[in-house]
Amino acid sequence: MEELRVSGMNNIGEMKTEYDTVQYIVIKLGDEQYGVDIKFIDNIVRMQHITRVPRVPDYLKGVINLRGEVIPVMSLRVKMDLEADEITKATRIIILKLEQHGTIGIIVDEVKEVVTLTMDEIEKITYDGKEDKNIFLTGIGKHDNELISLLDLNAVVMDR
Questions:
Q1: Which of 15, 12, 40, 10 lies closest to 25 in space, CA to CA?
Q2: What is the pTM of this model?
Q3: pLDDT one-digit tens code per residue, 64-80
Protein backbone atom coordinates (compact mmCIF):
# COMPACT_ATOMS: atom_id res chain seq x y z
CA MET A 1 0.00 0.00 0.00
CA GLU A 2 1.29 3.44 -0.95
CA GLU A 3 2.22 5.76 1.89
CA LEU A 4 0.32 9.07 1.97
CA ARG A 5 2.53 11.99 2.94
CA VAL A 6 0.94 14.97 4.67
CA SER A 7 2.08 18.43 3.63
CA GLY A 8 0.30 20.70 6.11
CA MET A 9 -3.18 22.07 6.58
CA ASN A 10 -5.31 23.85 4.04
CA ASN A 11 -7.13 27.09 4.82
CA ILE A 12 -10.13 25.35 6.42
CA GLY A 13 -8.07 23.20 8.76
CA GLU A 14 -8.33 19.90 6.87
CA MET A 15 -5.22 17.84 6.32
CA LYS A 16 -3.80 18.44 2.84
CA THR A 17 -1.91 15.65 1.11
CA GLU A 18 0.60 15.60 -1.72
CA TYR A 19 -1.95 13.58 -3.63
CA ASP A 20 -4.62 16.29 -3.86
CA THR A 21 -5.93 16.17 -7.40
CA VAL A 22 -7.50 18.48 -9.96
CA GLN A 23 -9.54 17.33 -12.95
CA TYR A 24 -9.00 19.01 -16.32
CA ILE A 25 -10.80 18.67 -19.62
CA VAL A 26 -8.09 18.36 -22.28
CA ILE A 27 -8.83 20.45 -25.38
CA LYS A 28 -6.94 20.94 -28.60
CA LEU A 29 -6.12 24.20 -30.34
CA GLY A 30 -4.17 23.34 -33.47
CA ASP A 31 -1.46 20.86 -32.46
CA GLU A 32 -1.34 22.02 -28.84
CA GLN A 33 -3.14 20.46 -25.87
CA TYR A 34 -4.57 22.66 -23.13
CA GLY A 35 -6.25 21.81 -19.85
CA VAL A 36 -9.39 23.56 -18.59
CA ASP A 37 -10.17 23.12 -14.88
CA ILE A 38 -13.39 21.11 -14.80
CA LYS A 39 -14.84 23.12 -11.90
CA PHE A 40 -15.37 26.11 -14.25
CA ILE A 41 -17.14 24.14 -16.99
CA ASP A 42 -20.92 24.39 -17.10
CA ASN A 43 -21.57 22.71 -20.44
CA ILE A 44 -19.96 21.59 -23.71
CA VAL A 45 -22.05 22.10 -26.85
CA ARG A 46 -21.60 21.51 -30.56
CA MET A 47 -20.73 24.47 -32.73
CA GLN A 48 -23.82 26.48 -33.59
CA HIS A 49 -24.84 29.74 -35.21
CA ILE A 50 -23.18 32.69 -33.48
CA THR A 51 -24.91 36.06 -33.82
CA ARG A 52 -22.33 38.78 -34.49
CA VAL A 53 -22.23 41.80 -32.22
CA PRO A 54 -20.90 45.08 -33.66
CA ARG A 55 -17.97 47.00 -32.16
CA VAL A 56 -16.45 44.24 -30.05
CA PRO A 57 -12.84 43.02 -30.09
CA ASP A 58 -12.11 40.56 -32.90
CA TYR A 59 -11.72 37.63 -30.49
CA LEU A 60 -15.37 38.03 -29.42
CA LYS A 61 -17.28 36.16 -32.10
CA GLY A 62 -20.76 37.15 -30.89
CA VAL A 63 -23.49 35.53 -28.80
CA ILE A 64 -25.44 32.28 -28.77
CA ASN A 65 -28.84 31.48 -27.29
CA LEU A 66 -28.53 28.42 -25.06
CA ARG A 67 -31.84 27.36 -23.54
CA GLY A 68 -33.01 30.97 -23.35
CA GLU A 69 -29.75 32.37 -21.95
CA VAL A 70 -27.72 34.72 -24.17
CA ILE A 71 -24.04 33.80 -23.83
CA PRO A 72 -21.07 35.69 -25.31
CA VAL A 73 -18.68 33.47 -27.26
CA MET A 74 -14.99 34.09 -27.81
CA SER A 75 -12.39 32.49 -30.04
CA LEU A 76 -9.63 31.10 -27.87
CA ARG A 77 -7.39 30.88 -30.95
CA VAL A 78 -7.73 34.58 -31.81
CA LYS A 79 -7.36 35.64 -28.17
CA MET A 80 -4.09 33.70 -27.94
CA ASP A 81 -2.77 35.14 -31.24
CA LEU A 82 -3.06 31.83 -33.12
CA GLU A 83 -4.47 31.42 -36.65
CA ALA A 84 -8.24 31.87 -37.08
CA ASP A 85 -10.69 29.10 -36.16
CA GLU A 86 -11.34 26.31 -38.64
CA ILE A 87 -14.78 24.95 -37.87
CA THR A 88 -14.94 21.14 -38.15
CA LYS A 89 -17.19 18.37 -36.84
CA ALA A 90 -15.00 18.23 -33.72
CA THR A 91 -15.28 21.99 -32.94
CA ARG A 92 -17.05 22.67 -29.64
CA ILE A 93 -18.12 25.61 -27.51
CA ILE A 94 -17.24 25.16 -23.85
CA ILE A 95 -19.57 27.15 -21.58
CA LEU A 96 -17.64 28.48 -18.59
CA LYS A 97 -19.05 29.93 -15.38
CA LEU A 98 -16.50 32.29 -13.82
CA GLU A 99 -17.13 34.30 -10.65
CA GLN A 100 -15.65 37.58 -11.91
CA HIS A 101 -16.83 37.31 -15.52
CA GLY A 102 -20.12 35.39 -15.42
CA THR A 103 -20.97 32.92 -18.18
CA ILE A 104 -18.93 32.88 -21.39
CA GLY A 105 -18.38 30.38 -24.20
CA ILE A 106 -15.00 29.57 -25.71
CA ILE A 107 -14.53 27.94 -29.12
CA VAL A 108 -12.09 25.02 -29.13
CA ASP A 109 -10.96 22.74 -31.97
CA GLU A 110 -11.68 19.53 -30.07
CA VAL A 111 -12.52 18.21 -26.61
CA LYS A 112 -10.37 15.14 -26.00
CA GLU A 113 -10.72 13.71 -22.51
CA VAL A 114 -10.86 14.32 -18.78
CA VAL A 115 -7.59 13.84 -16.90
CA THR A 116 -6.89 13.89 -13.19
CA LEU A 117 -3.58 15.47 -12.19
CA THR A 118 -1.96 15.38 -8.78
CA MET A 119 -0.07 18.40 -7.53
CA ASP A 120 3.16 16.45 -8.24
CA GLU A 121 2.22 16.31 -11.94
CA ILE A 122 1.74 20.09 -12.27
CA GLU A 123 4.66 22.46 -12.72
CA LYS A 124 4.05 26.14 -12.08
CA ILE A 125 5.24 28.64 -14.68
CA THR A 126 7.52 31.55 -13.91
CA TYR A 127 7.10 34.58 -16.14
CA ASP A 128 9.97 36.44 -17.74
CA GLY A 129 7.77 38.98 -19.50
CA LYS A 130 8.93 37.95 -22.98
CA GLU A 131 6.53 35.12 -23.76
CA ASP A 132 3.10 36.75 -24.16
CA LYS A 133 1.17 33.44 -24.47
CA ASN A 134 2.37 32.36 -21.03
CA ILE A 135 0.16 34.96 -19.37
CA PHE A 136 -2.77 32.64 -20.15
CA LEU A 137 -1.25 29.64 -18.36
CA THR A 138 -1.11 28.62 -14.70
CA GLY A 139 1.21 25.69 -15.23
CA ILE A 140 2.13 22.62 -17.25
CA GLY A 141 0.59 19.25 -16.47
CA LYS A 142 2.34 15.96 -17.16
CA HIS A 143 0.02 13.07 -18.07
CA ASP A 144 0.91 9.81 -19.87
CA ASN A 145 4.24 11.25 -21.11
CA GLU A 146 2.42 14.21 -22.68
CA LEU A 147 2.48 17.85 -21.63
CA ILE A 148 -0.75 19.79 -21.15
CA SER A 149 -0.66 23.59 -20.87
CA LEU A 150 -3.08 24.51 -18.06
CA LEU A 151 -5.18 27.58 -18.85
CA ASP A 152 -5.73 30.47 -16.44
CA LEU A 153 -9.34 31.12 -17.44
CA ASN A 154 -9.61 34.48 -15.69
CA ALA A 155 -6.59 35.74 -17.65
CA VAL A 156 -8.00 34.30 -20.89
CA VAL A 157 -11.37 36.05 -20.66
CA MET A 158 -10.04 39.34 -19.27
CA ASP A 159 -10.05 42.30 -21.68
CA ARG A 160 -6.59 43.38 -22.72
A1: 40
A2: 0.81
A3: 999 999 999 999 999 88
